[in-house]
Amino acid sequence: MCHVIVTCRSMLWTLLSIVVAFAELIAFMSADWLIGKAKPSGSEEVDDRAGGRQEPYRPTLGIYGRCTRISHMQLSRRDTLCGPYAENFSEIASGFWQATAIFLAMGIMILCTVAFVSVFTMCVQSIMKKSIFNVCGLLQGIAGLFLILGLILYPAGWGCQKAISYCGPYASAYKLGDCSLGWAFYTAIGGTVLTFICAVFSAQAEIATSSDKVQEEIEEGKNLICLL
């Protein structure tokens, strides 16, 4: 018989697992890993028609995508174009970024799998006599290692020609040049830290769902068990 067990610690672990998976996925897909050096927004003629000089804009560059501004001839209309600069994996600007993409993708796949499984831990707490929380915690730890490897390799690719075109001639491995780090990079770091927190917290979730209070309520015949 399926017993639905909801505790404060197990629910918090489930929510954190989902948040971490989405955060890493959004960061990976974003083009805001590097913020390039400031570029003029358009010609002086276009700016005069608009009634004043426009502020320079800063294009952004991701692992496989980028955002840049395209100026049109009519008035001051400008469109920000975002999308992948690489049509396939081999066109990613740096071999280090290719490795980063592989490690991050592997870590994110594991995190998404754990996030999906975590929803069902309210009803299923073990598989083949093994705690599902402990298994998921182990997988999150492995995912965290993949994410760390990807984040360590990413700055090594700052010396590629694509990064230099955005960050200036002084950009090189582990040196940003005229660029600055975007929110996606910091989100990926924060998600990695939370991944290890989730891996540790999974043990607490397992303890909470197998406590004496839970066992007592199961023996009383309750199918829905909610504990703080």
Automatic annotation (TrEMBL):
Keywords, sorted A to Z: Fertilization, Membrane, Transmembrane, Transmembrane helix
Gene3D superfamilies in the cross-refs: 1.20.140.150
InterPro entries named among the record's database cross-references: LHFPL
Transmembrane segments: 12-35, 96-120, 132-154, 183-203
One example of a Gene Ontology biological process annotation: single fertilization
Compartments, as annotated in UniProt: Membrane
CC terms in the record's Gene Ontology section: membrane
Its membrane topology: Multi-pass membrane protein
One Pfam family named in its UniProt record: L_HMGIC_fpl
Family from the record: Belongs to the LHFP family.
Protein name in UniProt: LHPL2 protein
Organism whose genome encodes this protein: Picathartes gymnocephalus
